[in-house]
């Protein structure tokens, strides 16, 4: 056992501070392999953080492989040799002729980079009291089921609430029987690999930034990039043959612009006539900052070709490790032969979420988050116009939790990313940045979901210093 002492100068949301601090201790070897981490309750008493904050930080460490969970035992550190060491104080004294591609963050080693993460969400808006109340009520109502495994497809009460919500808010037409509650995107794609075939070839929009490309590959899929723009004459001309599925984010594409109705219809027509499927990832479809919310692609499907995937991570918390997938009717018979292999999240958490939705807390929370992200989106646009001006061009940006920038500089997106990092700012590029022609202006993506207003402003100012140089 050991003590965790946070420095007073650490920045960012509390769960991020704690996550980065423990990660740093592991990477430097200050916490040895197989060391048991303090329990959530013990650490909460030690550093006076809420249990939810600590649980979120621990979950992030688990997801990145720094920690493993042993049932009825606790959390244990994985060998630090498996992770690259972080720089020490001397690593920041670099020679003047160091190439950009090899440069590290030129900032105080005690100061965490400002991260325009595409994955983080606003931690201050979590409805802690309402969620705790639903958890307690769920345990009271279902005390006799605590030691049961639950439904492999997901608790029916939750699937019923999800079906109702999707119909009302996203235009998804489905029954609870079509819904599979899972533990995340990897879990859903693993199941799909068995339903649509091992080593399936999946067409993937070239500029896609949803960070799932590696998850497809790890689950045995072959990813085939294809271009997609609003002026394409025919989907059949740009999607290669022998494709088993097409992955799209129609409500929020990389630029923030949704797919047009015409292209949506053509995609469905193409999938039906090619005996293929469309994987619709609606990871942040709830958040549109201007105009009406765009209905799902699945709602237009009359042929049973669209597989709809949604999540609680963006709107609620990634710590819950809960998502859902709506399967078309033609895939249900095959699913029945595999139900024993399904793996759903804690059924007590599912029952609590069902109660959370039934009581109306979920809908009120979504409204609050829309207002929060709208304010952050407006602030981000204002800061970009003020500090970056004609240096960048904002593309789309009317939906989701990130903004796409086309930077008017003759260099690669990767170089811009490295330049930003020398100023202590993390920005992001597309998954296939190396495939973008040299004559194209580089594109950079800035997430605003989890960043504070203060860090947002400071980060944009630092980008100006980095890129104008």
TrEMBL record:
Keyword list, A-Z: Aminotransferase, DNA-binding, Pyridoxal phosphate, Transcription, Transcription regulation, Transferase
InterPro entries (UniProt xref): Aminotransferase_I/II_large, HTH_trans_reg/aminotransferase, PyrdxlP-dep_Trfase, PyrdxlP-dep_Trfase_major, Tscrpt_reg_HTH_GntR, WH-like_DNA-bd_sf, WH_DNA-bd_sf
Cofactor(s) this protein cannot do without: pyridoxal 5'-phosphate
CDD domains: AAT_like (cd00609), WHTH_GntR (cd07377)
UniProt key word Kinase: no
Any GO molecular function: transaminase activity
All residue ranges annotated as the HTH gntR-type domain in the record: 12-80
Keyword set includes DNA-binding: yes
Family indicated by similarity: In the C-terminal section; belongs to the class-I pyridoxal-phosphate-dependent aminotransferase family.
PANTHER family: HTH-TYPE TRANSCRIPTIONAL REGULATORY PROTEIN GABR
Protein name: Aminotransferase class I/II-fold pyridoxal phosphate-dependent enzyme
Source taxonomy: Bacteria, Bacillati, Bacillota, Bacilli, Bacillales
């Amino acid at each position: 056992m050991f003590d965790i002492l946070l420095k007073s100068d650490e920045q960012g949301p509390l769960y991020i501070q704690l996550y980065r601090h423990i990660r740093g201790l592991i990477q430097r070897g200050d916490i040895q392999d197989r060391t048991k981490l303090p329990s959530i309750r013990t650490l909460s008493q030690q550093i006076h953080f809420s249990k939810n904050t600590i649980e979120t930080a621990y979950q992030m460490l688990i997801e990145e492989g720094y920690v493993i969970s042993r049932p009825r035992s606790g959390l244990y550190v994985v060998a630090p040799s498996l992770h690259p060491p972080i720089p020490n104080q001397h690593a920041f004294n670099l020679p003047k002729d160091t190439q950009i591609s090899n440069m590290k963050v030129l900032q105080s080693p005690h100061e965490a980079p400002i991260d325009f993460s595409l994955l983080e969400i606003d931690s201050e808006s979590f409805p802690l009291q309402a969620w705790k109340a639903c958890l307690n009520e769920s345990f009271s109502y279902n005390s006799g089921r605590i030691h049961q495994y639950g439904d492999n497809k997901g608790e029916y009460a939750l699937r019923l609430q999800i079906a109702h919500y999707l119909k009302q808010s996203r235009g998804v037409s489905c029954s609870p029987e079509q819904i599979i509650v899972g533990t995340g995107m990897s879990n859903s794609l693993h199941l799909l690999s068995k339903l649509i075939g091992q080593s399936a070839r999946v067409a993937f929009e070239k500029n896609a930034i949803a960070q799932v490309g590696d998850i497809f590959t790890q689950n045995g899929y072959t990813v085939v990039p294809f271009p997609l723009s609003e002026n394409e004459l025919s989907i059949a001309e740009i999607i290669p043959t022998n494709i088993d599925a097409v992955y799209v984010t129609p409500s929020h594409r990389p630029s923030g612009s949704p797919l047009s109705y015409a292209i949506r219809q053509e995609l469905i027509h193409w999938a039906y006539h090619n005996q293929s499927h469309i994987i619709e990832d609606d990871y942040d479809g709830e958040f549109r900052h201007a105009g009406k919310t765009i209905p799902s692609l699945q709602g237009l499907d009359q042929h049973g070709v669209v597989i709809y995937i949604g999540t609680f991570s963006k709107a609620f918390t990634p710590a819950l490790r809960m998502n859902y997938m709506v399967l078309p009717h033609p895939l249900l018979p095959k699913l029945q032969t595999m139900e024993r292999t399904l793996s759903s999240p804690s059924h007590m958490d599912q029952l609590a979420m069902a109660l959370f939705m039934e009581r109306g807390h979920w809908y009120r929370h979504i409204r609050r988050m829309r207002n929060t992200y709208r304010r952050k989106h407006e602030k981000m646009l204002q800061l970009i116009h003020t500090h970056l001006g004609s240096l960048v061009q904002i593309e789309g940006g009317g939906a989701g939790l990130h903004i796409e920038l086309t930077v008017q500089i003759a260099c690669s997106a990767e170089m811009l990313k490295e330049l930003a990092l020398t100023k202590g700012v993390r920005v992001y590029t597309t998954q296939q940045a190396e495939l973008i022609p040299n004559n194209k202006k580089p594109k950079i993506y800035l997430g605003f979901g989890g960043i504070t207003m203060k860090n947002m402003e400071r980060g944009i100012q630092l980008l100006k210093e980095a890129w104008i140089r």
